[in-house]
Amino acid sequence: MRSLLTAAAISLAFTLLLTPVFLRLFRRWGWGQIIRTPEDGNIPPHEAKRGTPTMGGVIFVLGTIVGYFIGTYAGGSPPTISGLLVIWMMVGFAVVGFVDDYMKVRRQRSLGLTGWRKILGQVIVIVPWAIVSLQFPNTWNQTPASAHVSIFRDLGVLDFMALGVAVGTILFILWITFIGVAWSNSTNVTDGLDGLAAGAGIFTIGAMSLVTFWQFQQRCYSEALVEAYQSACYETRDPLDLTIVAAAFAAGLVGFLWWNAPKAQVFMGDVGSMAIGGVIAAMSILSRTEILAVIVCGVFIIGSGSVILQRYYFKLTKGKRLFLMSPFHHHLEMRGWAETTIVVRMWIVAAILAASGVGFMYVEWLTQT
Predict the structure, then answer these.
(1) 263 contacts 52 by C-beta, under 8 angstroms
(2) Is 188 annotated as a binding residue?
(3) 205 and 43 in contact (C-beta within 8 Å)?
(4) Residue 206 in contact with residue 51, Cβ under 8 Å?
(5) Span of 125-129, 286-290, 331-335 with lowest mean pLDDT
(6) CA distance 110 to 117
(7) C-alpha triplet 104, 108, 109: angle, nearest 5°
(8) Is the dihedral of CA 271, 277, 279, 281 positive or negative?
(9) E strand or H helix that includes residue 230
(10) For residue 19, what are the CA distances in angstroms to 22, 64, 245, 260?
(11) What stretch of H or E contains 148?
(12) How far is 314 from 325, CA to CA, in rounded Å?
């Protein structure tokens, strides 16, 4: 518990107190937000935001790393492979986002990496991550990830390795790649209004931290777990360490939101939004809640889902649009909703979905006891 509180407190203090220092550096380096022009597509009037420091995701990524390592060592709970894998995915996706952001700033255009190059960068991060996640078994032969599809825990009937090691490994890597790319791009699409992605990230990652803490309390092979509850235990390899890194990340977002709330003094950029997606993907895989994450983090699916629907509706109807603009939060702007109204209501949706996901997990546990 000391590691958990220390990691969260340091990450919060880092982003809350040091963001002004980073902003001075960002302005000196010319890291100002590039706003799409009417030639790039019809957009809501965001011209006033041009030049606002961007790539602020660097701040809470660093805050998470600092908080996590200080918290784990100071609290007597050294980092585990599971926590390091979350850091790996977070930093890897952040680097891809940083390259995208830097290209925009350097070229002074709203276009950075092309879609396929961005996905290629994500795949380069994910494939070795997936291979390593099946290594390092502990005393009870638990590896950080498992070759099963999971909802609240592994589904025994959906085991990739049942098809053989070679085929199973390939299918597992494809599954993990899909999860990583999907979440990273979904969070990236959601980052379009001041505080929207940061606030939603606090609710979703915070909920995932609660999930892993519950798994820690009900972990298999725990001496404190009474025999009657062993049938409902969780086989997550390092649930407490996952809780620590998720709490550090959520706390970092809280500190960042102080400066990112409307009217934002800094934007997280793709480096930040893709890092959020990386943490969601890694946490869902390592906590064996890949499908449950669709509910817990469902607010991020609204934006990406609206983009997909818009594209296919446009093709099927030969030019008609389902939304005035996608992603959905820009559609609401075009309908005349105030930016703050959209952001707060999306936060409410994020909170409801996150709480529902945690509630479903508890109900499932009750059915197993």
Answers:
(1) no
(2) yes
(3) no
(4) no
(5) 331-335
(6) 16
(7) 65
(8) negative
(9) none
(10) 5, 14, 20, 10
(11) strand 148-150
(12) 12
Can you say whether residue 41 is alpha, beta or left, with left for phi > 0 and alpha for psi between -120 and 50 degrees?
A: left
Contact 86, 279 (CB under 8 A): yes
Q: Which two tokens stand for residue 154?
A: 């592994």
What per-residue string of b and e applies to 96-133 under the rule 16 or more CB within 10 Å gives b?
bbbbbbbebbeeeeeebbeeeebbebbeebbeebbebb
Residue 46, pLDDT score = 61
Enter the tokens of residue 288. 């064996």
SS3 call for 53: strand
Token pair listed for 334: 């075009």
Bridge partners, 237 (sequence order): none
Report the alpha-carbon distance of residue 170 to residue 266 in Å, rounded: 41
The single-letter code of the amino acid at 98 is F
Quick check: 317 and 179 in contact, CB under 8 A?
Answer: no
| Cβ proximity of 365 and 232 under 8 Å | yes
Per-residue tokens: 140: 């009870």
Indicate yes or no: pTM above 0.85: yes
pLDDT tens string 258-306: 999 988 899 999 999 999 999 999 999 999 999 999 999 999 999 999 9
How far is 102 from 367, CA to CA, in rounded Å? 50
Residue 270 marked as a ligand binder: yes
CB atoms within 10 A of CB 303: 26
Q: CA torsion 65→15→240→6, rounded to 10°? A: 100
Contact between residue 46 and residue 34 where contact means Cβ atoms under 8 Å apart: no
Structural domain boundaries in the chain:
2-368
CB-count burial class (<10 Å; 0-12, 13-18, 19+) for 344 = middle
Cα 257 from Cα 206, distance rounded (Å): 14
Helices (H), 134-238: 165-190, 196-217
* Cβ pair 67, 255 in contact under 8 A: no
pLDDT above 60 for 42:
no
